[in-house]
Amino acid sequence: MIAWTDRHCRHFHRQLSRRARLYTEMITTGALIHGPRERLLAFDPVEHPVAIQLGGCDPADLARCARMAERAGYDEINLNCGCPSERVQRGAFGACLMAEPALVADCVRAMRDAVSVPVTVKHRIGLDRNEDYGFVRDFVGELTLAGCELFIVHARNAWLKGLNPKENRDIPPLRYEVVRRLVRDFPDRRFVLNGGIRSHDEALRLLEEPAPGALAGVMLGREAYGNPWMLVEVDTLYFGQAPTVGSREPVVDAMRAYVRREAAAGTEPRAIIRHMLGLFNGLPGARRWRRMLSDPAALAREGERIIDTALETLARPREPAAAAL
Ligand SMILES: Cc1cc2nc3c(=O)[nH]c(=O)nc-3n(C[C@H](O)[C@H](O)[C@H](O)COP(=O)(O)O)c2cc1C
Asked: Which of 19, 146, 216, 296 is most deeply buried (CB count within 10 A of its CB)?
């Protein structure tokens, strides 16, 4: 998720689940080919399994970038066919690629020929107000012929005109039944359901339909970012393994060490700490934790020590309402 799932965020999330597959922000082929490639590809080995998401529409460029990403060590190359932003539309990639399945198939073929890690596609279920199932079925069908084996489906249309990206994540209705139909129609392909999932209960219920095991997985975006502690249940609920950690303290300790290490390399503590604001959500003091960690003056003054100061405020009893004003 652009501006959210950078390598610092992924490092943090990896402290909470060993098994969840993490995805980078969308990185465009233009940025990788002409921009700060090393910085864009950098990740810490602890992040595995980690997939890179590419944005682009030129088969040769995508093949080149997929090769760079494989060499950098990514476990999966994912092509973005779901972003509706105007900037991305001007570049003729993202969601508008759904209107050009033959071109996307060429992109997938070129990337598959270039790398041996899986090449996957993330897409919507339609464009604008067209809710015809045949549109997404034919899109998936064409990519199936190109060898795409896994599809991550954000189960709502992208309205290319009239909505900004944020509205495009909320307003077009969710239609999970379309994903279930794809699952039935393409039994030898794997589908991951995305869009609007707010809890593990909901995710586990969705994984039972149309039959247990029919979906390859679920992808959570905003909820996992906003309430990262939910990730601690992933290893147990979905993989039958012991949780990575039993409490928030070791996570905070690991992140404090990470902030220190990164500071030595010139990273501002704020760039890391901003991803941790939701860690105590649902617990007393969560608001104070958030407020403290997002206070620019306090961050500038205290650097990484702000984590400990914020922890202390969590431990303190709640201030009287009048004092809080
Ligand atoms: C800030 C933000 C940035 C996003 N950037 C991307 C992106 O780079 N690539 C992508 O495929 N989806 C991106 N998305 C969409 C999410 O991956 C996801 O498909 C969408 O939010 C629906 O899932 P959710 O309801 O679980 O959040 C972004 C979402 C947000 C909130």
From this structure: 146
